[in-house]
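> call design_seq(struct)
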């Protein structure tokens, strides 16, 4: 059963939807939402983000910074995240599609569904610093 649509929930969902492929911390969302709902607090933001995540309207992600970030699930996109400097690079959709197709063919896994894949590694800049 879906939770009721409060003004906080509607404003949060709209803000994330209008900023596709952008990650926000709960504090950043609070700062924006306070402009239209001045009495809102951080616990209300967290509670509504949890509800939106349960409804698959928002994804919660750890991009290696130790602080969860939130974004709309309307647009799928995928990331490479450097474990050393936390640089985040968006992967091309074709790359991910090819990867999923290879898994399907090689592993017989037919229904892969994700709108947000994150692969951790070391970026080329950090790797070249290590080699200097």
């Amino acid at each position: 059963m879906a939770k009721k649509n409060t003004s906080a929930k509607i404003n949060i969902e709209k803000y994330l939807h209008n900023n596709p492929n952008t990650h926000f911390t709960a504090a950043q969302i609070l700062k924006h939402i306070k402009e239209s709902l001045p009495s809102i607090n951080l616990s209300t933001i967290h509670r509504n983000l949890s509800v939106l995540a349960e409804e698959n309207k928002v994804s919660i992600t750890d991009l290696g910074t130790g602080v969860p970030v939130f974004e709309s699930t309307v647009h799928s996109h995928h990331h490479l995240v450097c474990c050393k400097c936390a640089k985040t690079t968006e992967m091309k959709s074709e790359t991910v599609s090819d990867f999923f197709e290879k898994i399907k063919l090689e592993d017989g896994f037919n229904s892969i569904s994700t709108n947000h894949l994150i692969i951790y590694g070391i970026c080329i800049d950090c790797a070249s610093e290590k080699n200097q």
